[in-house]
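Hey,

Quick one before I head out. I ran the complex with D-xylulose overnight. Inputs first:
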Amino acid sequence: MGLYLGLDCSTQSLTGIVIEIDGDTRRVVFNRSLNYDRDLPEYNTIGGVLRGDVDGEVYAPPAMWADALDRMLAELAQSADLDLDNLRAISGAAQQHGSVYLNQRAPAVLTSLDATARLAPQLATIFSRPRSPVWLDASTGRQCREIEAALGGADRVATLTGSPACERFTGPQIRRFAIEQPDAYADTARVHLISSYLASLLAGRDAPIDPGDGSGMNLMDLRGQQWSQQALDATAPDLAARLPPITPSSQIVGTLARYWQKRYALPAAAIVPWTGDNPSSLIGTGIIHGRVAAVSLGTSDTVFALTTTPAASSSHVFRSPTGDFMNLVCFRNGSLAREWVRAEYGLDWNAVAALLESEPGNDGWLMLPWLEVESTPRIAHPGLRRFGFGRDDAARNIRGLIEGQMMAIANHASAVSGTIDRVIATGGAAVNRAILQVMANVFGVDVYRLDVENSAALGAALRAYHADRLADGEPISWTSVVSGFTDPQPGHRVSPNPKHVAMYEDLRRDYAILETIHRDRKPIC
Ligand code: ADP
Ligand code: XUL
């Protein structure tokens, strides 16, 4: 019998899931979340992030994630019904693209942590930059253009690294830091992703970056799965020496550091490289072959699918933990926009659901839901665009925003997978059946919700299991890895209503036309 811990350090929370695998018995035996705003209020985040003085700057304190990790392992250790001696391996996932900057003191501090004291205060001296830019940061437009110019244009960057230069990606973020704060950059010995930073804390030593999360940096050669010297040169001086190596996502990094073993009486479990939340969700939603797409309704909304060959049409191509590729499209206006419209009209989620169900199609009225700057399509001028109704009409605003989001996702999903027979819905908003009904009607296919809500954390636990079997000389297929955890349950199926499918086909065409017309225009209402 083995226990496997998967962690997900997402934008708003840290989740820990433990799975037990004992012959054919496969079950989740621990599932907890810590919300940064609520449970770690001393960091003053709103939605897990802080906003900077410069337009578009969004960041989080890296010490907060360490603190959350410490609290999560404390909760795990206190869980009386678990025999943690059987904890064999730990892996994790983190919000993609965000970066953590460590100075040369970090390795010594990590190997000599005092197990009787909290982790975060002991890390106070290791950061060469106390702020970690996160994926919501949109302050690096200039650096993106510079990188694209140095590498021969956006298409060349996309062919080489899997994506055109994007504001939120790590390379442009590092470039801005190196240019604007040269002394702090000079003091930086290591630039980690959030994923590899947290793996390093668990292992007590520098952990590598996995190809899945490495693909979100504009720095990795997508096909070779190694740093591209050309891309590094276009980004910042002496960057190669500052990046950890890239290793396969199933190659064990080491064992749980002494700090955690002593502090929480945990065994020397294997530490498996962490990856990004989207690549991890691919495993946690059981997408190990084509024609199935996942839609994640988290802080960001994403749609992704597995592929054996990278698609030129997809805005992002990442490596997947299975060794294949995954196509992904990301929308910045996800849950925060839904939260905003809910709060604006003083409603709870049940009331939102009732409005969605009462008039599918919003009587033909549409909204472009770009409350903040949008990444798909790239929208520089934020602001909702309402067509045929005003600000005062709560019902039309709610439906306009959520139906608009679902139409945008469905329209852009064609770039990630030519044919979609089924959609797996995940992320915080996937608990809302009315939203999934809109999704099913708009896509015209069955939508499934999974038993385990947090597919990134589940995917991490499953990856830990996979790496553990491999290390034991018992390679196991991905189908066997996910079996029993991600099988679509008929009870969780939301089927499209044929009457509404036809209507949304027309509305999706109108939506696409509006999107094209308005993408470069400023909002007028
Ligand atoms: P992330 O992983 O990006 O931190 P989650 O996937 O945990 O985010 O999703 C959090 C979001 O889920 C919240 O911002 C909230 O808006 C949304 N959410 C939670 N419950 C509901 C609900 N019943 N209906 C719609 N959205 C919900
Ligand atoms: C994907 C992206 C987001 C983050 C946060 O490119 O930026 O989905 O990973 O979840």
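The chain has a mean pLDDT of 96.

Talk tomorrow,
K.
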